[in-house]
Prior knowledge:
Number of strands: 6
Low-confidence stretches: 181-188, 205-219
Strand content: 5-15%
Helix content: 25-40%
Radius of gyration: 20 Å
Order of helices and strands: HHEHEHEHEHEE
CATH class: Alpha Beta
Distance between the termini: 39 Å
CATH superfamily: Divalent-metal-dependent TIM barrel enzymes
Number of helices: 6
CATH architecture: Alpha-Beta Barrel
Largest sheet: 3 strands, parallel
CATH topology: TIM Barrel
Structural class: alpha/beta
Mean pLDDT: 80
Amino acid sequence: MSYDTAKAAFAEWGVDTEAALARLATIPISMHCWQGDDVAGFEKKTGSSGGGIQATGNHPGRARTPDELRADLEFAYSMIPGKHRLNLHAMYMDTDESPDRDEIEYRHFAPWVDWAKAQGIGLDFNPTFFAHAKADDNLTLSHPDKGIRDFWIEHGKRTRDIAARIGSELGSVCEQHMGARRLQGRPCGPHGRETAARSVARRNARAGTRSRADVGRGRVETFWHRG
């Protein structure tokens, strides 16, 4: 079906496709970074895709480095009408260092911010509660082992710090999706532990980081969901 045929068909229903496309072009869509590399990430560590992620990381032609992923993203953005954003996961750091998830800092993602400035796009930033040895049994914030829970709580806190800094550097709201896996249908046990862990992460007292907090000209907005 050609566009003209579709346009005429929609017109019969009172839909102006030209107006719809013009409006769509003004709505930024945050593209997930993991679409470019089959959810492999760029950490210097190796591990399985724990946390319920059904991906192998062996898709032919996937990006193998941050530079390759950025080049692929630039090509994709050039083919997609409108001005969009990038949703960056914590496992996509760009650094020669090898920090664990509870050790990450803004500097490990600064090249992404420099790239976003050059491209004129915004960044969103998510924690990565999967693909890690401490997520291989599919529990993170709801894990019965306090040491593992504390590890993921610290990871969540640090990603909020980083998101706040990204928002400030770009002068744009940096949205954060704080998702984590848990067992379903349990009124206590894992669910109770996860709820308590989320509360601790929300109360992060680091300077300049709180939910929906203005940070300079930028802002970090944290959204929570039950995975």
